[in-house]
Amino acid sequence: MANGQNNRLRRAVWHWLLRRLPACREVVQLLSRSMESRLSLRERVLLRLHLRACASCERYLQHLRLMRDALRLRATRDAETKSPSTLSNEARERIRRALEGRHQ
């Protein structure tokens, strides 16, 4: 009986906490910002709590880290070979058009 009450209390506390954590949309912004600068203590705590509760955001963080590491590796490799990666003019134009389309 006491075990069932403990489980109910844990669930109630967990749901209370989840309602006070930032939404996934806010967490995505925090994750992106955390890649560039240090978050405040409050932001780091909220982020960690949310990530423990949300598998989707945890997976998103893993993808961000994977992309960051791949880009760093590429930059290191380019620096070592002294041959920077460059885009063709055609590729640059496609990217420019795609970005302009998003901002309209």
Please summarize the sheet with the most strands. Answer: none
- Give the CA-based shape: elongated
SSE pattern, N- to C-terminal? HHHHH
Strand content: under 5%
- Radius of gyration using CA atoms only: 21 Å
| Category by helix and strand content | mainly alpha
Describe the structure.
- This protein is mainly α and 104 residues long.
- Helices cover 81% and strands 0% of the residues.
- The protein is built from five helices and no strands.
- It has helices at 2-20, 24-34, 41-53, 55-81, 89-102.
- The longest helix is centred in the middle third of the chain and has 27 residues, at 55-81.
- The N and C termini lie far apart (61 Å).
- The mean pLDDT is 86.
Descriptive terms for the model:
elongated, 104 residues, mainly alpha
Mind sketching the topology for me?
Elements: H1 2-20, H2 24-34, H3 41-53, H4 55-81, H5 89-102
